[in-house]
Amino acid sequence: MDSSGLYREITGSARSAPGWVRSAFEVWTEYGLLLFGLLFIAVWWRARARTGPRPVALALAAPLATAFAYAASELLKSAVDEERPCRAVAGAAAPLIACPAPGDWSFPSNHSAIAGAAAVALALAVPRLALAAVPLAALMAFSRVFVGVHYPHDVLAGLLLGGALAALAVPALTGPISTTTAAMRASGGRAAVWFTGPGPARRP
After folding, report:
1. Tens digits of per-residue pLDDT, 133-151?
2. Measuring CA to CA, how many Å separate 56 from each of 8, 74, 149, 183?
3. With 0-12 CB in 10 A as exposed, 13-18 as middle and 19+ as buried, what is 50?
4. Can you give the pTM of this predicted structure?
5. Whose CA is closest to 158, among 51, 97, 80, 92?
6. How far apart are CA 63 and CA 54, in angstroms?
7. Residue 19 phi/psi, 5° resolution?
8. Apex 162 CA angle, 166 and 93, nearest 5
9. 36-72: pLDDT as tens digits
10. Is 73 within 8 Å of 82 (Cβ atoms)?
């Protein structure tokens, strides 16, 4: 797949964008994934107060599924060995951030895989979060092209890979984690109950 033409158009637009737009994308592409981490924590904290072990299980499965998607994207990246467009595309505008070192391959985008997995996992845990998580994942993917370190096809593949793996992994993990959560709640241990929430085992 050759998306170098679209890459040139997007990076050219990035260079001509107002300075505050460039700065916003630079910050988002570097630190935006932290927002998904905060959402994971918020969903877990909220789930602790819910009855039944399933909400906690979904909240814990979400980051695990995202980590699995990241590992899969790393394996695929090392197998494909696609050079970064900031070195390979002739005539493209200079990237807004430093081009990753040689050997840090381009396909697929790890950031996009993580964002796609996180968005799907969060939506499965709290469906209404899809309204925020999905656009944020798309924005993360676009930012990787905007700053010049990925081809469009890299980020599209990353989103699809991460989202698909999370859609498979979260349901597969939820059952075993629910069983463990119920056992931890029933144990009455202070640390276990703090981590999983009191649940029905602590209710009169």
Report:
1. 999 999 999 999 999 999 9
2. 45, 28, 37, 13
3. middle
4. 0.90
5. 80
6. 15
7. -60, -40
8. 160
9. 999 999 999 989 888 788 999 999 999 999 999 999 9
10. no
